[in-house]
Amino acid sequence: MSKENILEISDFNVDFWVDGVWYPAVIDMNLGLAAGKVTAIVGESGSGKSTTALGLMSLLASNARMEGSVKVKGEEMLNAKSSVLRQFRGREVAYIFQEPMTALNPLYTIGFQIVETLRSHFDMGPKEAHTRALELITMVDIPNPEQSILKYPHQLSGGQRQRAMIAQALACDPALLVADEPTTALDVTVQAEILDLMRGLKDKLNSAILLITHDMGVVADMADDILVMKDGITVEHGTADQIFNNPKHPYTQQLLGAVPKLGSTKKRALPYSESAKPAPVLKLTDVTIEYPKRGRQPAFTAVKNFNLEIYPGEIVGLVGESGSGKTTVGRASIGLLPVKGGSIEIVGKEIAGANSKQLSDIRQHTGIVFQDPASSLNPRLPIGESIGEPLFLAKLAKGADLARKVEELLDQVELPRSYRNRYPHELSGGQRQRVGIARALALTPDLLIADEPTSALDVSVQARFLELLQELQGKLNFACLFISHDLGVVDILSHRIAVMQNGLLVEEGDRDVILKNPKNDYTKRLISAVPVPDPKEQKIRREARLATKK
């Protein structure tokens, strides 16, 4: 390998000790990454992508063993002393982790965490570090930086938390940036800004970037080289042009074939006629949702005068930038958030102002898939218990019957039945998301709230999940509010699309009308920012978008 390489990986192997057996996770990996270059690692969940990333700085769990060689700037990282690792972590090698809620400390403000990073690596005073933290928060486009720097992670939207973690990762101008799904929770416009930011860092500092993602549009936008992994093995490695235009391995061909392309799916027929509409499963009328004043934080109106109806067997895609109010609407729709004004009805029953007993009864008709699977699963419970818990609490199954239904649900989301005894930390991000989906479907709900359910799924699993969701909906006829920043996924699933901006519903209508003939300027901007899985076309789109900003 070249001496110019920032990162050199040679004959790298990772195994995990589980139930008395060593399970291989990464097998004989070899990779060289030069300064100023971007290498993307792609593959299905569980293929070893994140394990590789965490292994670089010895961040794996105690039941892992590593062999081979990992060198950063010529320094061996495997079995290195803790003092050496401390020197490299954060300063020379920075991470953008897959799940921001587990990577950020919930007890400290995001500003404090960025300041802590800066002061641990540089000789900075508190004021200087605070000024630099504010610059970083502004750079990643978190709204109201002066207020946001004082917020705790739970006070930010999923996309804003991701941006806060990116700001922390970029704080020390690292030589190597390891980005594990850096755009997972980001809407397309912010995603484009973040990719521009990472590209600028690479060009400015001549940094190397190891990009781990399932979004082939992002890969097409950023990567110079692509490494394809399956079951811990590197099945193909080549330039972006080679992989996208002339993939050799059947698995690579399968991955690229599963990528959703905007405008490529035929129109989905509504499950009802306009002349004979059934009663809506979910009806929101003039809904206003406000987060109350807390300490120095003033009251904040997150959703204003929102109106939407969803009918049996219908999927409505709810799109918009992070912080626009999408998740707030979803949570309020099953009674997880109180409303300040307006009405919310589920299967004809009002939930605004309902007591806990009424909400408990209504929630037997609903299911929700949360955006962050790690924080929504109990880390102390095996996933089988998490999946079966709704059935047990609703007194619909117990004992052997409950065990059988849990296994059926695992089958539905394509997880091995043996996984029922595993804990959340033993699964990949995509596998944890599938557990969340299985739990949401446990009660065969009339209404499913899906909050970014495909955000942590690779493209092939995502394609199977979308097929599964459509198949289950055909059988169960549930209504679905599908919240997503991925317009390609919304295009595949949705009958109608609703667009939110700053808490307001700015456009709503038939899927094809919204995607092909949007009327609102904001909707047009969202659609133009969608990355496409073609390096040449994406370069043209990126240059056109950047030209409009000058």
Provide the fold topology.
Blueprint: E1 5-18, E2 21-34, E3 38-42, H1 49-55, E4 64-72, E5 75-76, H2 82-88, E6 93-96, H3 100-103, H4 110-121, H5 126-139, H6 145-148, H7 158-169, E7 176-180, H8 188-205, E8 208-212, H9 216-222, E9 225-230, E10 233-239, H10 240-245, H11 250-257, E11 282-291, E12 300-310, E13 315-319, H12 326-332, E14 341-346, E15 349-350, H13 356-362, E16 366-369, H14 373-376, H15 383-393, H16 399-412, H17 429-440, E17 447-451, H18 459-476, E18 479-483, H19 487-493, E19 496-501, E20 504-510, H20 511-516, H21 521-528, H22 535-549
Parallel strand pairs: 3-8, 3-9, 6-7, 7-8, 13-18, 13-19, 16-17, 17-18
Antiparallel strand pairs: 1-2, 1-4, 4-5, 9-10, 11-12, 11-14, 14-15, 19-20
Helix pairs in contact: 4-5, 4-7, 5-7, 9-22, 15-16, 15-17, 16-17
Q: What is the mean pLDDT? A: 87
Shape: globular
Give the termini separation. 40 Å
* Strand percent estimate: 15-25%
* CATH homologous superfamily grouping of the domain at 274-381 and 426-529: P-loop containing nucleotide triphosphate hydrolases
CATH architecture name of the domain at 274-381 and 426-529: 3-Layer(aba) Sandwich
CATH topology of the domain at 274-381 and 426-529: Rossmann fold
Helix-residue proportion = 25-40%
Radius of gyration: 23 Å
Structural class of the helices, strands and pairings?
A: alpha/beta
Q: Main β-sheet: number of strands, strand sense, barrel status?
A: 6 strands, mixed
Task: Provide the CATH top-level class of the domain at 274-381 and 426-529.
Answer: Alpha Beta
The main sheet orders its strands as 6-7-8-3-9-10
